[in-house]
Structure prediction request, 528 residues.
Amino acid sequence: MIESRDPITSELLGQVPEMDAGQVASAIARSREASRSWSQLSIDKRCQQMRLAADTMLDSADEIVDLICRETGKTRVDAWTSELLVTAELIDYYLKHAGRVLAPRRVTSGTLKTKRASKHYAPLGVVGVISPWNYPFSLTMTPVVTALFAGNTVVLKPSEVTPMVGLAAARIFEATAYPDIVQVVTGGSSTGRCLVAGGVDKIVFTGSVSTGRLVAIAAAETLTPVLLELGGKDPMIVCEDADLDRAANAAVWGAFTNAGQTCISVERVYAVASVYEDFVKRVAAKAARVRPGKQVGSMTFPPQLDVVKRQIDDAVRKGAKVLLGGERPAGLSEMFFEPTVLVDVDHTMSIMTEETFGPVLCIMKVADDAEALAAANDSPYGLSASVFTRSSERRDRLVRGLAAGSVCVNDCLVNYAIPSLPFGGVKKSGIGRAHGPEGLYELSMVKAVAEDVTGLSSDPLWFPPRRVFEALTRRFIQARYRTKPGARLAGLLSGHQSRNAADRGLTTLPGTRATAARASDDAASRGS
Ligand code: NAD
Prediction:
């Protein structure tokens, strides 16, 4: 059994079994059975059921928030906004737009005017969802509801650190007329491995880069597709023309909200030299007012505290200065950590290159925008980034240059709360996208349909081959695809092809008469 405990009080919240391969296989079988009816529902009928689920979630929102706070140690404001609000927004967005996004779509059939071409979106089947502990509700509900809207059923494995929230999330769907559409398997990495190997139709994994890599390797064995939402080391660039007050407020909130345990936390700030001192002064003043236990909750997972401490020690050993914090605060549970600001940092320090996932903000001085951009991109991660500037020209240049899945301008983290925006990373931060139409397409199978509209008993290009089509096709290709209008006309009249191409031998294919003739000429000239 796995125990779930309140990280602040250590109170036992519940116990769940560590499920084995047999139990996971049974859950997948139940899910597949449920998918037989769920996948056949029209999108309107599915939306009706999802409305029931949404109302059930809202009926029990207070209890869900209580449970989230007790199992993670986060503040109630964090739980209401980043867990409940973003989930409600996403469901609302899909209720309004999933029908349009997933409707069959006519597409051009090019020059094949006698064919009707369309794209149809079908469910994949059973989607395995593996979720983390840092936002145990929203990061569980996001893939679960997206999969359901797309017509799939789900087998969910919540984090072993926050299983009670995972179970509460799954219970919401019991209010629908299809109570088996979300199955839960509880346990840690071995249960997760069973789910990945269990024959589901796609795995949506949210977690660390190291586990994501293991999931991708295991999924490759069965060619199970994966969507990976992994870690980040998100940079913020503060330009010389930035509103420094707004930038400092954003950096402090972006680094310390949810005690920094956010995949898109602001972890590195690059401030250009001309505003660096002023910016650091403002950040220090604002960060000093952020109180652990009041505005900032506790850390959730004990080993994460060691990572934070180790990275700070490494940075200090290499010359970094702790401007604020750096310790556990007195008088609070040992799972709290003071909001910490570090300066004089550089990329030799692990705190500037590895994910910290704690309430730590590092500020580095850079000469100019170009140096800031190079430093921001000097990372194996590429989840999100933010830019503070008043200039639209600078904004465009930096947005273009940043290697990240999302960029916030004069803001941070807010991209996740806009459900129409795709969310996901580049480089080691992941593969694929959640949210928006892209999220639904990730969990759908697109079926290409080509339909004849002539009603003829045969097609002109079918057997037997007609020689006239060779000449016609030759003229057609030259007339239709040449890029210069004059050449198109010449092509239509003569089936003309450029002499240069013929001279260069580009038109003689192996096995054609011309090739054979040239081969025999060559043989003759060698006298053999
Ligand atoms: P983790 O990788 O330790 O665990 C994530 C999940 O994977 C858990 O449910 C765990 O039980 C399961 N798991 C562990 N080993 C497994 C295996 N071999 N096969 C299958 N499943 C396995 O991550 P975590 O500590 O729970 O979460 C924190 C990490 O998640 C951070 O790195 C954070 O950046 C990342 N994260 C990313 C996003 C995003 O959307 N990009 C969002 C939140 C968190």
